[in-house]
Amino acid sequence: MWKISLQILLTLSTLSFTIAQLENQTTKPFFTPQNTLFGDSIEGTSVDELGNIFATNFLNETFAIGQIFPEQKTFFLSNNDSSSFNGIRFLKLTKDEKITIKSIFLAADKKRSEVTKVTLFQNNNIEQTTFCKDDSFIEPNDLAISYNSGRIYISGQNFTNTTQKGDGGLWLCEPDGQAKQLLSLGRTNGIELSPDEKVLYLSEAFNRDFIPISNKIWKFSVDVNNGQISNQELFIDFAQLDSSQFADIDGMRCDVEGNLWVTRNGDGKVLKFSADKKLLLELNTEQIIKTANLEFGGKNGSTLFIVGKCKDDNSKGCVDVFENSKPGRAFSVLTRT
């Protein structure tokens, strides 16, 4: 009897520990409605090699990119005010390039239907060009970059009353700017590569009467030699996970351990999944009602910056933070010598 009771006690202790590990945590405010200079369409959170964090919709302008950390200020203004920037990714510079160049970043311009390349020179000159463009693009949304090959994977979505296959997809841009569509899908948004760049994650959503009815994350194998994808596999179906298919998947980022962090636009949450599909952590955003995007940055590259519409003022963009134990994939690669 004592042995049975002990076994039950040990089982309950283990169960309690597992549940405790999955308890909700809450992010901390970084920019509030009172001090933010970003508009409600804040998006495209990105990091450079110094751990600086950037996002779009600065001063409520779709063509403006602002710096979030270490200080809030204008970073870049497009030479075309019809631009509407979304996803942003910084490129890794060689030692020789750093002699004349401060930084190079790519930005998805959904209104001009292209991926824009911006080079900031040490002499303060700026060069803005089209990196890649294709007739098949559907409002380019977010970007995932292969730092080893220079290839760019692009998501996109045409938000209609009722989603049809072909309202989104997956595109590939080669380092020389040549683009091609790899897949035709429903609305695609969040996109990320694993730290070893052998796995691509991509979200897909469908809606009916403007209401999301399906939100899934797909997992693909990536051929590192030619960039092609294969072995499409369901990673997460939110209808099966927690019946939250009504909340769109938005930004996705990996940390150096290969965990996938996902924002739920419409649910005010950020979820952390292991590479083997286990839900490890659920974050409730303190002051963001629609979590749009996220990125790891800061001094050690382990501070998670989360952006989205402010709960208390939907006309403004707020930023929350969460301290992780490990840095993000992008920061780790950009700072690697």
Question: How is the secondary structure organized here?
Answer:
Layout: H1 2-21, E1 25-26, E2 28-31, E3 38-39, E4 46-47, E5 53-56, E6 64-69, E7 73-77, E8 85-90, E9 101-109, E10 114-121, E11 126-132, E12 140-145, E13 152-157, E14 168-173, E15 179-185, E16 191-193, E17 199-208, E18 211-222, E19 229-237, H2 238-241, E20 248-254, E21 260-265, E22 269-273, E23 279-284, E24 288-297, E25 303-310, E26 316-323, H3 329-335
Parallel strand pairs: 1-23
Antiparallel strand pairs: 2-26, 3-26, 4-5, 5-6, 6-7, 8-9, 9-10, 10-11, 12-13, 13-14, 14-15, 16-17, 17-18, 18-19, 20-21, 21-22, 22-23, 24-25, 25-26
Explain what the structure shows.
This is SMP-30/Gluconolactonase/LRE-like region domain-containing protein. GO terms for molecular function: hydrolase activity. It comes from Gigaspora rosea. By secondary structure, the protein is mainly beta. The chain has a single domain, classed as 6 Propeller (Neuraminidase), CATH 2.120.10. The chain contains three helices and 26 strands. A five-stranded mixed sheet has the order 1-23-22-21-20, with no helix packed on it. Strands 2, 3, 24, 25 and 26 form a five-stranded antiparallel sheet that branches. The chain is globular and about 55 Å long. The N terminus is likely disordered.
